[in-house]
Amino acid sequence: MEHLDDQERQEVWANIKDALFNDHIDQFRAEFLELHPYDQARIFEDLEKDVRLQIYTYLSPEEVADVMEHIDYDEIEPFFTEMAPPFAAQVFAEMSTDDAVDIFNELDKDKVASFLTIMDDDAADEIKDLLHYEEKTAGSIMTTEFVVVKAGMTIREAMVHLRTEAPDAETIYYTYVIDEDKRLVGVISLRDLIISEEEWLISDVMNERVVSVSVGEDQEEIARMVRDYDFLALPVVDFQDHLLGIITVDDIMDVMEEEASDDYSKLAAISDVDSPDDHAFASAKKRLPWLVILLFLGSLTASLIGRFEETLDQVAILAIFIPLIAGMAGNTGTQALAVAVRGITTGEIEKQGKWKMMLREAGTGLITGFSCGLLMTLIVYIWQENFFLGLLVGLSIFLTLVVATLAGSLVPLLMHRLKIDPAVASGPFITTINDLISIMIYFGLATAFMNLLI
Amino acid sequence: MEHLDDQERQEVWANIKDALFNDHIDQFRAEFLELHPYDQARIFEDLEKDVRLQIYTYLSPEEVADVMEHIDYDEIEPFFTEMAPPFAAQVFAEMSTDDAVDIFNELDKDKVASFLTIMDDDAADEIKDLLHYEEKTAGSIMTTEFVVVKAGMTIREAMVHLRTEAPDAETIYYTYVIDEDKRLVGVISLRDLIISEEEWLISDVMNERVVSVSVGEDQEEIARMVRDYDFLALPVVDFQDHLLGIITVDDIMDVMEEEASDDYSKLAAISDVDSPDDHAFASAKKRLPWLVILLFLGSLTASLIGRFEETLDQVAILAIFIPLIAGMAGNTGTQALAVAVRGITTGEIEKQGKWKMMLREAGTGLITGFSCGLLMTLIVYIWQENFFLGLLVGLSIFLTLVVATLAGSLVPLLMHRLKIDPAVASGPFITTINDLISIMIYFGLATAFMNLLI
């Protein structure tokens, strides 16, 4: 069977609606629970409130928890508000701790406190612990439902233990080995467990070079490790190597998606590109702050040109090439910036050194600047039949491209040094700097060589 | 142990170099094979050619295959060229078929043919089959090393089979169930296998609602499914539901990275943002084509302004606001475009309908346009003490933002309809269209109301 496409979802949906309408609990449960929780969530969020209330009585807290884990957390609040609080608390207790924590971070603090009060103590404690970790660190994305064994166990004992723990564990494909002080000393994959003899000791077959991350590690760095090393899960430890939790590959995929969309949004100068279901006001709210900043930055450019009003009055034709030159500066700066931001993100630049990169960007700027400058000199010469105007425009483009390329890579490197996320620099900042630089060069040259132009 | 940082790599590297220099095979093997293949690859690619040749004699083809799977495929060619061809063929035979195919796609055709000739027939046939699939489809990223069982087997028989297959399989965490005609009929996770009783039948415990993808499915769609459904692997079938291969989550992470970097590169108008180790010429080559296109598109803008030379001659101060207005058009267009491209990529727009989206973008444009226009009218009025100039600039910004926002979402939708990747439209295209629109509006209004300005 393929995954559910829209038509199949419509059919299943009709059956489920029918069951709900006729109060056929069994039929509803049979149809609904057959679906993957992702599809359950898609159907669930399309329902009216009274139908959802009916569903809460048809499903167990555990089954509702599966559905909730696949709802967009930005939009989950109303569902937990409409559930009876004791039921909602049970649903939270049945969720993976990492998902429960993510959802709690979206709810208001009073509501969270009230859920934690009615919740089972063990579950509440686990969640409280995780709520302390800073966003986007290992601690905030890890789960505490993992399986551990002692190094002295036999394979047989470990397998028995694993079978008992399996229902609650986030993954059983890696089992972590701890010593008497609960320090992480090894890892063994289920693959290795099932091909080992039952009487062997864990300590004989475990891998002692277990790769772990510290609880404060940045999620982007963790995503890079999981991708490079092809892990399905990574253990999280404190500074004394005590095992605190694990991060599984499905959470890593969400991190990758989040980080990619973050970088993309920043390059486009917009706070969050990923909610095309917003209304016009919500989406204007996300874009307007950037646009207003850009407006003020643009006014800077305007006032700079204003200083050359005399030059403009004498040779009005100069105005024709302003958007072209400023545009080229913005474009080449964005290119260099994108390469630098990605290089910082992937760690490539750290590896090969900043100077080497600046040198290469300077070279790139010289080559692209020379080519475009020469081309433009010819175009303007032929079009306007004015050699000096052509030379002026061409020379401006040459200089602009060299400087703008360098600025495009220098600015993110500086921001990175100052511990600011370099992706923030992208759109507005670099483009305005380069607008200013390009206009200074263009009108500076024009004013200096005015006698050749008129 | 944390993963290797630069300093640790230096230490290990010193030991390994020492072993190589003194011809201590055992010491080399002990140090080198202890590392994760990802780290092995990082050390390996930093070595001189004669040292690499020495390593090929110290390691088995299988061990070299592990290293090669973690080298960047763009840069892998020299390594396979320097190996003895029979050894290289053995290395390929030991690799996952999907990785071997990816590498073959980077080598020239004659070399591939010669490797396939000396390779073991079975391995060669598997790779040949995969070489036929189109790039970026399920077929091109799947591997053929998966484990299948028959529905009539007992759990015990299945586990015995699994233990035998484990060393060669890409993953054993999912076992696929096929019928007599080799059609995919179910899936069973290793988790379910180990908690089931040994005498139960596979057909009793398998999940019959197995989600699969067809061999021609686009890799981006597959990545979305794996992420939404939290799969560790997905089976690939032909149109008759025969199981052809599987796609594992580690390949999906590479796809996600590739697609994200692709979209990002296109927004920055650069062919490939991801190789900061290029030399200046190589990186100029990637950027120059875009810059030249932009240069010609910019010339269009220039010639459009040229048509308003008379207006400019009369009111030279108009030139001051050209970059501001064109810049705002470009920025708002890029914002709308980024939202539309992401919406198309994630399928959100398909779901909610194009008209709803256009309507929302129109609303957003009206709100942002009105706010920015009003603000700019005030700024220009105060700064230049000219109310009509302020009104002209403000009105131009209002109209420009409305039209540019609409254009920014309309263009990618049109391209999507025409089956062109909408991300291509990004940087240059939308910015130029919006430059032209904004200048037409600004100078059109200025020319029409000239008498109020002078």
TrEMBL record, chains A, B:
Its cellular-component GO annotations read: plasma membrane
Family affiliation:
Belongs to the SLC41A transporter family.
Listed under subunit, the entry gives: Homodimer.
Specify the species.
Halobacillus karajensis
Q: This protein's superkingdom? A: Bacteria
Q: Which gene encodes it?
A: mgtE_2
Give the NCBIfam families listed for this entry.
Answer: mgtE (TIGR00400)
Instruction: Provide this UniProt record's keywords sorted from A to Z.
Output: CBS domain, Cell membrane, Magnesium, Membrane, Metal-binding, Transmembrane, Transmembrane helix, Transport
Span of domain CBS: 142-205, 206-264
Which SMART domains does the UniProt entry name for this protein?
A: CBS, MgtE_N
Residues passing through the membrane, by range: 288-308, 314-341, 362-383, 389-415
PANTHER family in alphabetical order: MAGNESIUM TRANSPORTER MGTE
**What topology does the record note for this protein and the membrane?**
Multi-pass membrane protein
List the protein's name.
Answer: Magnesium transporter MgtE
Task: Give the main location.
Answer: membrane
Alphabetical list of InterPro entries matching this protein: CBS_dom, CBS_dom_sf, Mg_transptr_MgtE_intracell_dom, MgtE_N_sf, MgtE_transporter, SLC41_membr_dom, SLC41_membr_dom_sf
Keyword Translocase present in the record's keywords: the answer is no
Q: Which compartment or compartments is the protein found in?
A: Cell membrane; Membrane
Query: GO MF annotations for this entry?
Result: magnesium ion transmembrane transporter activity; metal ion binding
Q: What does this protein do?
A: Acts as a magnesium transporter.
